[in-house]
Amino acid sequence: MSTTRRTSPTVFVSAALWGELGTSLQASCPGLQTVLFTAGERVPDGDLAAIEVACLSSDLWPDSSGPFLRICLDSPNLRWLHSFSAGVDHPVFRMFVDRGVRLTTSSGASAAAIAHHVIMNLLVARRDLPSFLRAQASHQWLPRDLDDVEGRTVGVIGMGPIGREVARLCREFGMHPIGLRRTVRGDEPCETWTFDRLHELFGVVDTLVLAVPLTIDTAGLLGRAEFAMLQPGVHLVNVGRGELINEPALIDALRSGQVGWAALDVATTEPLPPESPLWDMANVVITPHSSGGTASTRRRSTALFRDNFERFVRGDSLYNEVF
Fold it and tell me: How are beta strands 321-322 and 102-104 bridged, if at all?
């Protein structure tokens, strides 16, 4: 897809991103104009009308992402919005697409970081690290035999960049990953099935990783019926979206032991409410939607926006465009 661009669009970005990328953006587009986001400040109408390009960078998440996107919605001549994240399932992003704004994501930028997070949690579960930390806190020396990840059968639901990297690393650690996706392409790093075999997958895995986007079809992917199909004591890691799981059903499955252990980087309601029983469960590890929040992810996301900006100025197609 190519469009004719004028040589000096006005870009709406955070001061932090501009400090990092300003020189290279100006080099690729002489005469580039900017509107810098400042939390709590109103953007003048003239600047709103001038904005054509916006980048929702990771330094704005989570506290300033809402105000930033509201300004983008109020910018009548916005032509392209780039998001630091891979997931754009929030309805606000559909609003931009529906009004003709080009939308791109940073899909792939966080794949390595999130895959490392998944592997860390699989090791934490098998080596029972939480109990060691509890023993340390109470000054107890409690040696015992441990389990390993080698030989585990891991179902990886979602074979995007994150799922593929999870599967690749699982193989390196001696696990047997089985991927699940809508259409098998043949270039997956592991045995991969289509979604019509989802229930069959439930019966053979002892570890389940959710790395699939939230869609109408994947919302509520795991509920009471699905938990009952899983092998007792299954381990679960969710780095997709909280809405993939029926949370009350998960809590019951954790209490009964049907799910032996869970690592949750996402929740149905974020932040996870203080009264949620998940906080106090010994067989649950909670991280605040932070699995991809590393310096390497930020570097790759920033580089992707820079490369896409150069393509935008030239009128070339954009990487990771959402249609």
Answer: antiparallel
In words, the CATH class of domain 111-286 is: alpha beta
Q: Which residues are catalytic?
A: 241, 270, 289
CA distance 249 to 145: 31
Q: What pLDDT sits at residue 276?
A: 98
DSSP letter string over 154-166? EEEE--SHHHHHH
Average the pLDDT over 48-58 and give the result.
97
Q: What is the pLDDT of residues 228-240, one digit of tens each?
A: 999 999 999 999 9
> Where do the structural domains in the chain lie, given as residue ranges?
10-109+296-322, 111-286
SS3 category, 198 = helix
Could you give the CA distance from residue 236 to residue 125 in angstroms, rounded to a whole number? Answer: 10
| Residue 264 burial (CB count, 10 A) | 23
Q: At what angle do helices 295-314 and 111-126 cross, to 10 degrees?
A: 160
Name the CATH code of domain 10-109+296-322 (choices 3.40.50.720, 3.40.50.300, 3.10.450.50, 2.60.120.200): 3.40.50.720
